[in-house]
Amino acid sequence: MYVIDSAIANRIVDRTMKIIGHNINVMNAQGVILGSGSNERIGSIHEGALLAISQNRNVEINQDIAPSLHGVKSGLNLPLHYQGQIVGVIGITGKPSELAQYGELLKMTAEMIVEQANLQDQLQWQNRQKEEFILQLIRAEDKDVDQLTHWGHQLGIDVTVERVVAIIEIESVNQQQVHNNQALKQIVHLLQYPDRNNLIAMTSLNQLVIL
Fold it and tell me: Is the dihedral of CA 53, 54, 58, 61 positive or negative?
């Protein structure tokens, strides 16, 4: 199950608070506030979010009900879904009657951010897996062929394809660029887009290998 973390929660808060002039809270699937326009509320349990999660519905909290719930102000709380599962809640502070027009828009925006973040995480994981595979491939011995063939198949890489090996080493860059890997990252981007079926891995701060 995908988990909303503080970074994603703050991204949702920043994006959605630009849409409306109300405070936004983002809670995880346990009802803990991870992001909020009111920093003092971060880390507390939001009982309105727990209701939205347990009942899988939008929960309106008015000024009469709010004092009876822990960590809650009047507003609207909407469960966030990803791939059919509740992954958190977005809460909007204010009078529920004034917030209805914003609710579904903010929910959709938040769910799109969650989906985008998950796709980015998957892509980064795949890139790390592919880079580690390439590093193992260039150091491989005969006894490793079967294992690497299976691993390559999982990554969509055919190890039987004949390839030329090239090494690029950056010499004329300043220390800040070396530290940030900016020069090599720019070269990697140029080699990867448009796709030429290259296999690329960074072997050091100033060197990469291309198959």
Answer: negative
Compute the distance between CA of residue 187 and CA of residue 180 in angstroms, rounded to an integer.
13
pTM above threshold 0.85:
no
Per residue in 110-146, pLDDT (tens digit) is: 999 999 988 888 888 888 888 899 888 888 887 888 8
Measured CA angle at 84 (ends 98, 13), to 5 deg: 40
Q: Give the whole-angstrom CA distance, residue 127 versus residue 162.
A: 22
Q: Give the CA distances from residue 98 to residues 62, 92, 103, 147, in Å, rounded to whole numbers and listed in that order.
A: 11, 10, 10, 60
Q: Is the CB of residue 49 less than 8 Å from the CB of residue 27? A: yes
What secondary structure does DSSP assign to 57-83, as a single string?
Answer: S-EEE-TTTGGGSTT--SEEEEEEEET
Other beta carbons within 10 angstroms of residue 159's beta carbon come to: 18
Continuous segment of H or E residues that includes residue 126: helix 96-138
- What's 143's DSSP letter? G
> Token digits for 131?
């880079």
Q: How far apart are the first and last CA of the chain?
A: 35
* Res 168 pLDDT > 70: yes
